[in-house]
Amino acid sequence: MDTCLYASDLNDNEWALLAPLIHRSHPAGRRQFHPLRRIVDAVFYLLRTGAQWRMLPHEYPPRCAVFYHYARWRENGTWEQVTRVLRESYRRAIGRAPQPSAAIIDSQSVKTSEMGGPRGYDGAKKIKGRKRHLLVDTQGNLLKNSVHPADIHDRTGAEILLEGLQHLFPAIELMWADTAYRGLKDWLQKALGWRLSIPQHWWTGGVWMRTDAEPPTRPSGFQVLARRWVVERTIGWLTTNRRLAKDYERFVETGEMLLYLAMSRILLRRLTRKNER
C-alpha cells in the first residue's frame, strides 16, 4: 500500500525497483529503528524542495538518522551505482543496448552559497561558484559527472571527468561537444580511443568565408544544434530539483552525489510508468 505523504515520496512500484539496490549504512550489530524507505523518501524530499536539514518535516525520521545514511552513501558511491543499474534497465526497456556507443558532454556553472568549500570565478559566464561537467548518452541519461571550481577551463574539466572512462563505457566510440572542447580532440583519441564531433550551424565557417563568396543569410531566432541539445535538456531536468538550483554544498562530492540522486529519481519514474503501460 502506498504511503506517499509528499509528491517527492516513492510509490510502491518505485520502491520495489530501488530496494534491492541500496543497503542500510549502519555499523554491524547496531539496531535500525527507522524504515529505510522513509530515509530515502526524506533524502528525495530535501533534493526536490531544497529545504534546510533543520526544516525536514516530522513525518520523516530524525535528521541525524537521515544525514548518517546520506553521508555514508556519498562516501561509498551508492547513488552512482544505482544510476548505472537503472540506466541500463531503462535502455533495455526502450530496445537499446545497455552500454551506449556515443555520448554528449557539456558543463553548467552555478553559484555557490555561504557554506564554503572549493569555488572559482567563471569569466565567460560571470559566475562565482562551481562548474558541473556532465556526460550523458543519446537519450539524455547521466553517465558520469564531475563538480569542480568554476575557474577551471572546460577542456581541463573534461579531462578530469573523462580520465579512465574507457573501462566503464567500453562501447563508446564517439562524443559530441561544443566548440569549447575543440582542443580535446587529440587527447580524447589518445587517452580513450574516442572520436570527437562538434556540431555547428551550417552558416558558421565553410566556403562562404572566401573573399569571393557571398555570406549566407542567417535564420532569425534560436536554432537548435543537433545532439548538443540533449545534454542541455538533461541539465534542465536535473535543475528542476531546487537543491540543484545553486550549489549549497560544502563538499563537491555531495554535489556529484545529488546529480546521480536526481537522475535515479527520473529513471525510477520512467521505468515504473513504462511497466504500468
TrEMBL record:
Keyword NAD: no
GO biological process, one term: DNA transposition
Any coiled-coil regions, as ranges: none
Alphabetized UniProt keyword annotations: Plasmid
Segments forming domain Insertion element IS402-like: 10-82
GO molecular function, one term: DNA binding
Superkingdom in the source lineage: Bacteria
Lineage: Bacteria, Pseudomonadati, Pseudomonadota, Alphaproteobacteria, Hyphomicrobiales
Stretches assigned to the Transposase IS4-like domain: 99-266
Protein name: Transposase
Pfam family, one: DUF4096
